[in-house]
Automatic annotation (TrEMBL):
The chain crosses the membrane at residues 12-33, 77-96, 108-127, 133-152, 173-190, 196-216, 228-247. It is a multi-pass membrane protein. This is ABC transporter permease. One of its GO terms (cellular component) is plasma membrane. Residues 67-251 form the ABC transmembrane type-1 domain.
Length: 263
């Protein structure tokens, strides 16, 4: 009961903070504290959003078409990253041989900015969707693998020792101790990877695309239409907020111990 009240209080505070943010943003523009040509008011962005639900002007697609085009590519690349990155991170964290083999590769890939792969991948795959999916896969997979590896490496030795004394096999220790201990870091990796995925996609769509939120924002830049640019920013922010909310719900249900505060 107390936990539910705390969750409701957190939700109310979150909603209030968003209202304060957007009202403050609106007032800054309406009071002339900044040039409306450089910073669009939220009300103007909302008006454009409603208009873009049925209009393809000026970028050639409705907001739904642009959003789905970007979201589909993100989900494809991210799904591939999860399928490879999470199991690989678990293997690296639990099996010393796998860590010795793969760690140098990821230590080399870790400092490379994801955007650095954009020209290389686009040169190989062209401006089609496959190139953008590949870029998102690379950026997300590296982050997800490293976070999963870090999470399972952080498994408390005492838990492993207790399991070993209790007669647990290597496989049982991996599935019943290692993986549950790594879940919080895996979810952290999922959130970070999704952020990287959207940032990379927008940059790639600005360079090579004919549809998508990044392409729409780039058209706004060319036309000096700040409302169109901020529409893309707000839509991406809302998608990110919703995804993070879903992630939080999944984490609370899959690994409730990871969100409990220590007593």
């Amino acid at each position: 009961m107390q936990k539910k009240k705390k969750l409701n209080r957190y939700t109310v505070i979150s909603v209030i903070s968003l209202i304060v943010f957007f009202v403050g943003w609106e007032l800054i523009v309406r009071l002339g504290l900044v040039d409306p040509g450089k910073l669009s008011a939220p009300s103007s962005v909302i008006e454009l959003f409603i208009e873009k639900l049925s209009s393809e002007y000026p970028d050639g697609a409705t907001i739904q078409a642009n959003t789905w085009a970007s979201l589909r590519i993100v989900l494809e690349g991210f799904a591939m990253a999860c399928i490879i990155g999470i199991p690989l991170g678990l293997l690296m964290g639990f099996f010393e041989g796998a860590e010795r083999f793969f760690r140098p590769i990821f230590e080399m890939l870790r400092p490379i900015p994801t955007l650095a792969w954009v020209p290389i991948v686009l040169l190989i795959f062209g401006i089609g969707d496959s190139g953008k999916v590949c870029i998102i896969f690379i950026g997300s997979m590296v982050s997800l693998t490293i976070n999963t590896w870090t999470g399972i490496r952080g498994t408390k030795k005492v838990l492993l020792n207790v399991a070993q004394v209790g007669g647990a096999s290597r496989a049982q220790m991996f599935f019943r101790v290692g993986i549950p201990s790594a879940i919080p870091m895996i979810f952290t990796g999922l959130r970070i990877s999704l952020g990287i995925a959207f940032a990379t996609l927008v940059a790639a769509e600005m360079v090579a695309a004919t549809i998508g939120l990044g392409y729409m924002m780039n058209q706004g830049r060319k036309l000096m239409d700040t409302d169109l640019i901020f529409l893309g920013v707000v839509v991406i922010g809302i998608i990110g907020f919703l995804i993070n909310y879903v992630m939080s719900i999944l984490e609370r249900n899959i690994a409730p111990w990871s969100t409990e505060e220590p007593k």
